[in-house]
Amino acid sequence: MKKLLAMMLVLTMAVSVTACGSKSEQPAEAPSEALEETPGEEAEAEGAAEAEAPAADGEYVVGICQLVQHDALDAATQGFMDALKEELGDQVTFDEQNASGDPATCSTIVNQFVSDDVDLILANATPALQAAQAGTGTIPILGTSVTEYGVALNISDFDGTVGGNISGTSDLAPLDQQAQMVKELFPDAKNVGLLYCSAEANSQYQVDTVQGFLEELGYTCKQYSFADSNDLSSVTQTAVDENDVLYIPTDNTAANNTEVIRNICEPAKMPIVVGEEGICAGCGVATLSISYYDLGVATGKMAAKILKGESDISTMPIEYAPQFTKKYNAELCDSLGITIPEGYEAIE
Fold first, then answer.
1. 227 Cβ partners below 8 Å, 6+ apart?
2. Cβ contacts of 29 within 8 Å, gap of 6 or more
3. What whole-number distance in Å separates Cα of residue 74 and Cα of residue 296?
4. Which helix (H) or strand (E) segment is 248 a member of?
5. How many CA atoms lie within 13 A of 137 on its CB side?
6. Would you report the helix, strand and coil content of the chain in percent, each value rounded to 5?
7. Which of 4, 126, 149, 156 has the most Cβ atoms closer than 10 angstroms to its Cβ?
8. Do residues 99 and 128 lie in contact, with contact meaning Cβ atoms separated by under 8 Å?
9. Are 203 and 172 in contact (CB under 8 A)?
């Protein structure tokens, strides 16, 4: 009996061990089952990996930050894109953004470009360039429609090359020749009012410089600055009341509000000599101007050399417009009874 009980106990223990062994082996099969995916899940994973892959070699994304929409800046942007397309064809795409005249929005746009890791930034106008400089020290930045880079970027003893990751083109026309234009057209005038936006560093530079030339020619000058478009009308009216002629530099806020300026100056028979063609077409009588489209083309050619590795942006000097043209607003000159001498082209 004892032998029988012993044999039964041995059999019971064997069955128990076998049962425990089968339970411990089951989890080992689970991971292999978890790794199996449906065909749809595999395709989804491949698509995610493909979306995260970097662009193929030879494909470039260029971010364009333009301060505000008006004829001069629009022409510079178009010239830039046309030139870069001609050089690189379908290898380049553009992310074109407009800040609607707000420098803070320029910073937001640039920060997005930096986040997107674009290959190059075009900064169209001084506030856009300043925002780009603050936003990145590594992505190449080309400025255009910027008058004086030393002033814009607070560089003392500027020698014509910014260095680092910045270069570009300047829209500076000879300010001494613009002063001579005032003398040529209005030799009997006594007082010249200099109207500009105080928020634009390059506008301040231009009026300070041209004032010196005008005073050498015998004029009495006074500066009239407006902070933004909100006080433009009242400042313009004061300038009209106190002067014989007005001068407006290449000022983006003025360029975006020429109708406001004209509606005050034309009824008062107040002539305005201006710094560029777009403002002249809107409210000026004459200008010594550049082609902003050609300026953009020159900037686009610089960009192509940088993207193709043919030039180092840190050693590229600022480029200037190759020629300047005397132009006049025929319609407004007729309205004001002003006779333009030979040598001026009518703005079309």
1. 197, 198, 199
2. none
3. 9
4. strand 245-248
5. 1
6. 50, 20, 30
7. 126
8. yes
9. no
Residue 304: both structure tokens together: 């192509």
Q: Give how far the C-alpha of residue 92 lies from the chain's centroid of Cα atoms, to the nearest Å.
A: 17
Closest among 257, 254, 159, 151 to 206, alpha carbons compared = 151
Residue 220 contacts residue 193 (beta carbons within 8 Å): no
DSSP code, position 318: P
Per-residue tens of pLDDT for the chain, all 348 residues: 433 344 444 444 443 434 434 333 333 333 333 333 444 444 333 333 332 333 444 599 999 999 999 999 999 999 999 999 999 999 999 999 999 999 999 999 999 999 999 999 999 999 999 999 999 999 999 999 999 999 999 999 999 999 999 999 999 999 999 999 999 999 999 999 999 999 999 999 999 999 999 999 999 999 999 998 899 999 999 999 999 999 999 999 999 999 999 999 999 999 999 999 999 999 999 999 899 999 999 999 999 999 999 999 999 999 998 889 999 999 999 999 999 999 999 998
Structural domains in the chain, sorted by start: 60-171+291-317 (3.40.50.2300), 175-289+325-346 (3.40.50.2300)
- Measured CA to CA, the distance from residue 273 to residue 139 in angstroms comes to 38
Q: Could you give the CA distance from residue 312 to residue 315 in angstroms, rounded to a whole number? A: 6
pTM over 0.90: no
